[in-house]
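Sequence in, structure out.
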Amino acid sequence: MATQHTVRQVDTVPSGARVCHYDELEETGKHRFAEAVKSLRKREETCGLAADIGEDCCDVVKFTDYYLLERA
């Protein structure tokens, strides 16, 4: 089952946050994350994401910029 997240771009990484690189995400999570970022760049400050991005999910994904994943 996919985990619900809110994705938003951040300028700084919160202290104690676990950071992973886009390449470390599960394959389906990579595709859905990229689509969420594309949508995010077009419209709003946050975007929803429902995807299995990895068993030990990180808090911030490095994908050119940093994106904070907030579990819903």
